[in-house]
Amino acid sequence: MAAQLPIPVYTSLDQAMPDLQTAAEQAVRYNNLVEEFEKRFGHKPSYIARAPGRVNLIGEHIDYVLFGCFPAAVERDILIACGPSLATASTGTGGVQAHNLNPKYQPQNFVPMLKTGGITAAEEAGAASTVHAKAAWQLDIDKRELRWESYVKAGYYGVLNRFFSAASGTQEHPVPVDLLFTGSVPSGSGLSSSAAMVVASTLAFLTVNNKLEGVSKGQLVEMAMENEKRVGVNSGGLDQAASVICTPHSAIFVNFYPKLSAEPIPLPTPRTIPRAIFVCANSLVVSDKAVTAKFHYNLRVVETLVAARVLGRLLNLPLTPTERPTLRVILTRWLGTPEADLEKEDVKSAIERFLPEIEKLRPAREGREPGEEGVTMKEMIELSGLSEEQFNQVYLSWVEVEAEYFQLYKRTRHVFTEALRVLEFREVCVRAQATEGDLPEETLKQLGALLDASHESCSTLCESSCPEVDELTRLAKAAGAYGSRITGAGWGGCTVSLVAEDRVEEFIAKIKEGYAPYRELSDEKLRDAIFATKPSSGAFVLKLDA
């Protein structure tokens, strides 16, 4: 399985890139990063850690309820030149000097502190004193005011506490590290720049500390998921899985239940008609998932979790007061079949049979105005069957959310219909791969229709779109896209459209003409805002000559 494979470590770009042309194009960027690192830190880097952004082709806001998704890594990425620091006097034990080629992001120095029984290791009598069993590494991350280095610190957390704590059975200390970042994933665009930052940072700290050996792709995904929670985002793992596990020319079907697994699925390419590729278009509405989490992303997480409990009670399924089942778990209990015995086709059939049960969540609308079709906090607690104290402990003690009405029915309907679309999308791609001879254009139209239906659900049921993104999808269809949808956490960010390759230039020109925010952009900024992309390889490490 792809998730069990080791993280690739290459010694040349020729090995790392899908073809020699791409390697030659990227060599300029990599060489520039190495040269700038040496200028800033006075020595050459030992490695370059790379993690790509991702485009989620279909399957939005369902990973955190443990349904499968269908992402692909994009060619745009985060690169970190890294190596042990020579400035140990100024950095201290495990200290970090982090610089960024983008002048917008100022250099940052920070030192992790090992808390031992209420005091730091540095405050103890000796730096090499025994680490107490309750010791844990600490880094200051202000979730109310996230900065670029917050994601670097988040990536460091998991490495520190997994490999340098008492629980790991070692008394080693992390080495001081120099880091130089560069990136081509637009921030806040829905292409998971934050996940790419955390994955690349985690990978860099693992590599410089000689802890990468034995770490599988799946383990790196799990570490990065936990690390990103340090910046206040309760990620389901989709972004990290795509950034780590993807392979060139393929998307991956990522499944999260009963455990993480990833299946590479080659995307269909017609043989006698123009090849279709994906075009990402940035709405230029910046969506900072961490900053707006309590109104948007984390709120959707809580709504779906509470909906699972309420639906379980309505279906008379076994529930304990302290558990927090997901909708995926509720489906399995309703089936009464061990998850290990289910094939993907069985899950698809089960969802189709389960859809009528969702109507039990539909709230009464009598006397309510439009927009008030959800339930209040008080009503939600009553529906859960828990006391207010129990409810707060299970659903609110670990996350901050804010809403007047909680849309349990809408979110649940989105989850199950979107999960169904993901499985149908996968089926179409698998059938296309097995087809001999000419591939009919009808296949691309089928995929496009699924993209369109997904966007409609994201807009009306998940309510994770925004007017600008809705406008971009309409313009994309008018410009000839087979289908178009929002991609990423939402409330801004990007769309992804399936477009015939020989019509990409014409397609982009029409979008530029129709979408007002694009009209005043320079050619360079327009290339950053809307671009065609092919599925890319996942995270890797490039080992440099000493």
UniProtKB/TrEMBL annotation:
Highest taxon of the lineage: Eukaryota
PROSITE patterns with a match to the protein in the record: GALACTOKINASE, GHMP_KINASES_ATP
Any one GO molecular-function label of the UniProt entry: ATP binding
Presence of keyword Lipid biosynthesis: no
Ranges for domain Galactokinase N-terminal: 35-84
Domain GHMP kinase C-terminal: 439-515
GO BP annotations listed: galactose metabolic process
InterPro entries (alphabetical): Galactokinase (IPR000705), Galactokinase_CS (IPR019741), GalKase_N (IPR019539), GHMP_kinase_C_dom (IPR013750), GHMP_kinase_C_sf (IPR036554), GHMP_kinase_N_dom (IPR006204), GHMP_knse_ATP-bd_CS (IPR006203), Mevalonate/galactokinase (IPR006206)
Enzyme Commission number: 2.7.1.6
Domain spans labelled GHMP kinase N-terminal: 163-244
Record GO cellular component, one term: cytosol
Substrates-to-products reaction catalysed: alpha-D-galactose + ATP = alpha-D-galactose 1-phosphate + ADP + H(+)
SUPFAM superfamilies on file: GHMP Kinase, C-terminal domain, Ribosomal protein S5 domain 2-like
Pathway(s) served: Carbohydrate metabolism; galactose metabolism
Keyword annotations of the record: ATP-binding, Kinase, Nucleotide-binding, Transferase
UniProt family annotation: Belongs to the GHMP kinase family. GalK subfamily.
PANTHER family with a match to the protein in the record: GALACTOKINASE-RELATED (PTHR10457:SF7), MEVALONATE KINASE/GALACTOKINASE (PTHR10457)
Listed name of the protein: Galactokinase
